[in-house]
Amino acid sequence: MEWTLTATNPTGSLGWMIFFMQKYANMFIQGTLITLYVAILGTLAGFLLGYIMGIIQDLKVSKEDFVLKKLAAYIGKSISLVYVEIFRGTPMIVQGMIIYYGLLQADVKISSVVAGILVTLLNTGAYMAETVRAGIKSVDPGHREGALALGMTLFDFQKLIIEDLAATESCVIVGKCADWILRGQDGVISIYIEAAREFCVRRRSCMC
User: Fold this and answer.
1) Cα 76 to Cα 53, 58, 200, distances in angstroms
2) pTM of the predicted model, to two decimals?
3) Angle formed at CA 121 by CA 76 and CA 92, multiple of 5 degrees
4) Quick check: 207 pLDDT over 60?
5) What is the rounded distance in angstroms from the CA atom of residue 97 to the CA atom of residue 112?
6) How sure is the predictor about 2, in pLDDT bands with cuts at 50, 70 and 90?
7) Helix/strand number for the chain, H first, E second
8) How many other CB atoms sit within 10 Å of the CB of residue 88?
9) Where in the chain does DSSP place strands (E)?
10) What gap in Å lies between CA 133 and CA 189, rounded to an integer?
11) Is 1-138 in CATH node 3.80.10.10?
């Protein structure tokens, strides 16, 4: 089979692939960069949102608490539950169409990149919220009570849980303490994320 590699009259599968790469290479590169930008930014923001929502779902309320605290906890849990159920139960493409075109119908104009980040944020946050909630629920309350009865601090108790998880299964653990606890373990991958140095310096100077 003869392959024609010219960009004007391609023939065959390889010829067409080369033709498209020659003609649309810049668009492919730009699209890849935008995809990475949307995915990374939306996932990191969704990770934070999901962590907060997971904590809200596990809020404890006792009979002795103030009425306002009970009301706030009830509203927060209800919002978190509805949010998680909606965004875990619908496809991302549907969410994207509703957010982008729905906001346009309401005369709220956002770019497609912002809409993509928003959809990724909300979708990732919903799954992360359920992961956090399930992780908290998986720890037997009796374990904590037993650890405290033995005179262990909360850090020692959490340290044992982290070491047990790392030794028995694959897991993702958030926090600098986990990095220190598992510093001598094999097969541990540590990822450190921080804000821009200028922002950190400016924030630190405002706190002084």
Assistant:
1) 9, 10, 31
2) 0.62
3) 105
4) no
5) 10
6) very low
7) 8, 0
8) 12
9) none
10) 24
11) no
